[in-house]
Structures are given as C-alpha cells and as structure tokens.
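Quick one, probably user error.
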C-alpha cells in the first residue's frame, strides 16, 4: 500500500485544512495539448497511484486522460485521451467529458464524469488497469453533473450522488442520491442537501455539489462538497464537508457552516475561471489519521490540501449548521 502525499500543518495555521507548499502540483501545460488540467480524480493503484484527469485542449475541448504516479504528487499523464469501448450497452455519444471521479468497488475501478449527450449528464465507465476503458449507460437524463459513487453498496445497491442542473452555468443545484442494482438502471432518487439560506452560510447559498468519493467513518459518510455563492463578479466555489447517515445517506447529520477551504491563494483566485476551489478526489488513511484532498484551482491547475481525518470530522460536528 502506497503512502499518501502529506505535509504537516504549518506552525502559524489555525485552519482545519492546509495547502501543500508546492501547489499547484499539476501545471496547466503538463501535456503538450493542454490549455488547463483541473477537476481530476486519483486512487491508490499498484504500488502507487492512478488517476483520471480533466485536460481541456487548446481548442477548449474537454476530455479525460489517464495518468500514473509513484507518490501522488508527480504525475505522468498520457498525452492521448482515454478511448472507451462499449461496456454494458452499445457505444453512446460523448460530445465531451469532464470532472471525473474514480472509485474501486468490488473488482474494478469505476469512473463517473459529466458526459456530453445532448447536454451534460452523468457518464459511467470502468477499467481494471487504466489501460482499457469501458463506457456504460449514462446514469440519468440530461441535465446533470457531479455524479459521485459511494465506495460500496448500500443496502445491497450501488449508490450515487448527483446534482441535477441545466444546460448552462446552472444558478441552482441540490445534491441528490440515487440507487442501482446493476450500475445501469438508476432510481429511488432522494434529496440529500440544498444550498443554505444566504444569512446562514453565504458561501454555499447558490448551489452545492458532491466532490470526492464519500469516506466511511465512525460518524457516518464524510462527504466533501463544493458550495457556490453568486457574486457581482460571478460564481465563487469553496469546499465544505458533511456527515451523512451510514445506512440512509440522504439524512444529513452534520454540515459545516464555515467552509474548509476557499479561494485565497493566487492560483485559486486567478486562472481561466477565477475563485474556484473544486474538489474531485481524496486519499485517506484511517491508521495515520490523514486526509489529502485533490482539487481544481481556478479551472486551470490541480492542487492538494491536507487535514487530519479526525479533526475534519470533529470540525464538521462542532461547526454544523
Ligand atoms: C462548473 C463546472 C466545473 C467548473 C466550475 C467552475 O459548472 O463546469 O467544471 O470547475 O463550473 O467554473
């Protein structure tokens, strides 16, 4: 098992999460075709890590690329995008792919992403080796984004968070959960979480969407999510956390009133889309009490932030709405 990327908390830091001193870890031009690399997903793989990266090319076409790393920080990203073969259905259209998430369930790595099929919806695929990839049926009708699978079945079914949306820069957004017996047919849709009233917690008052794969803890599913406020200069994306009931994750037990991490460093505030912290993956170690979150910074580069798992859980409980 590989050691997850880590750096101790700086002496002068009072926050529950802190940034890696060498952020961003992946530069916008890390592969020859890229305009930007951000909102990407990583998992432990072999004696290191593998990932699925959102690389927009210089025509600003959005696609996903496989990558590999020994230490989770220095990445070799393939120069060609992932080619999909048909999985549990005939090949379906994919005009674009963005914002991937990756999770190992049972015997393979499942990938979800925002799939262009007459508008954005949730694409699903799988791989065993990050070399061959198989595309499955879309989970939902358009329009939807931020499809995030749970790492194990819940009450005998696969479970996925998502955020129904519109065709554009959606000015609303709730987190929902849906279930499937087979990764093909999805139903039993339940509301999990809405944006907050402006006066209670304005950073998450416009929309919310799930981020990394939820982490099972003694206090419930730890769900890191993004929250958005609409300002006079556009959307601002920050990251918070919630604890969901283990057996019925549509029940929110705790949810942070303050954000865990908001755009404050130059690489988060300046880029193709300013003021965006957009988490899509996390590595964790219960034994070592470590959590490392991967997030897109300003829709331009990939950065990481650290927290003690126990402190993030405690912070979520003690600062709950
Ligand atoms: C969302 C998605 C994300 C992006 C974010 C901020 O709607 O398009 O990919 O990071 O907006 O621009």
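Nope, works fine. Designed sequence:
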């Amino acid at each position: 098992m590989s050691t997850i990327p880590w750096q101790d908390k700086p002496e002068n830091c009072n926050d529950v999460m802190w940034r890696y001193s060498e952020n961003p870890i992946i530069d916008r031009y890390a592969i020859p075709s890229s305009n930007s690399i951000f909102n990407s997903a990583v998992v432990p793989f072999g004696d290191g890590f593998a990932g699925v990266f959102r690389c927009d090319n210089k025509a600003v076409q959005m696609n996903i690329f496989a990558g590999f790393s020994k230490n989770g920080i220095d990445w070799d990203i393939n120069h060609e995008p992932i080619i999909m073969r048909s999985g549990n259905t005939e090949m379906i259209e994919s005009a674009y792919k963005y914002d991937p998430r990756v999770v190992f369930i049972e015997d393979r790595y499942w990938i979800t992403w925002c799939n262009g099929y007459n508008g954005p919806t949730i694409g699903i695929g799988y791989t065993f080796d990050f070399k061959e990839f198989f595309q499955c049926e879309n989970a939902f009708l358009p329009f939807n984004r931020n499809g995030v699978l749970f790492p194990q079945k819940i009450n005998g079914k696969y479970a996925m968070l998502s955020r129904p949306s519109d065709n554009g820069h959606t000015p609303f957004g709730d987190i929902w959960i849906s279930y499937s017996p087979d990764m093909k047919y999805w139903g039993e849709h339940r509301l999990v979480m809405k944006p907050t009233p402006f006066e209670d917690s304005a950073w998450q008052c416009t929309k919310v969407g799930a981020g990394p794969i939820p982490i099972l803890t003694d206090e419930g599913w730890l769900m890191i999510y993004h929250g958005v406020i609409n300002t006079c200069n556009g959307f601002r994306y920050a990251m918070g956390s919630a604890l969901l009931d283990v057996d019925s994750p549509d029940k929110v037990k705790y949810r942070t009133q303050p954000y865990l991490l908001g755009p404050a460093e130059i690489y988060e505030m300046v880029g193709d889309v300013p003021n965006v912290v957009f988490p899509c993956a996390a590595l964790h170690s219960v034994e070592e009490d470590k959590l490392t979150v991967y997030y897109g910074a300003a829709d331009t580069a990939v950065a990481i932030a650290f927290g003690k798992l126990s402190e993030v859980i405690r912070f979520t409980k003690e600062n709950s709405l």
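The mean pLDDT is 97.
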